[in-house]
């Protein structure tokens, strides 16, 4: 999540989105999947 925040602060929304999608692709815990999706939605609101 720190790398996602660094990308976001630097204005690299696509990079942050890719990092979240990479984690979401392998995450198996539904609660954590929900958190990742919420973070992706927040990025969409910023762009």
Any overview of this molecule?
α1 runs antiparallel to α2 and α2 runs antiparallel to α3 (30-46). The protein has one domain. It has helices at residues 2-9, 13-26, 30-46. The radius of gyration is 10 Å and the shape is globular. It has 47 residues and is mainly α. The two termini are 18 Å apart. It has three helices and no strands. The mean pLDDT is 95. The longest helix has 17 residues, at 30-46. This is DUSAM domain-containing protein. Residues 6-42 form the DUSAM domain.
Shape: globular
How far apart, in Å, are the first and last alpha carbons?
18 Å
Mean pLDDT comes to 95
Q: How many β strands by DSSP? A: 0
How much helix, percentage-wise, in residues?
over 70%
Give the strand content: under 5%
**Helix tally?**
3
User: How is the biggest beta sheet arranged?
Assistant: none
Q: Structural class, from helix and strand content?
A: mainly alpha
Order of helical and strand elements: HHH
User: What gyration radius follows from the Cα positions, in whole Å?
Assistant: 10 Å
Pfam families: DUF2379 (PF09543)
Protein name: DUSAM domain-containing protein
Domain DUSAM: 6-42
Main traits of this protein?
mainly alpha, single chain, globular, 83% helix
Provide a short characterization of the protein structure.
It holds the Pfam family DUF2379. This protein is mainly α. The protein is built from three helices and no strands.
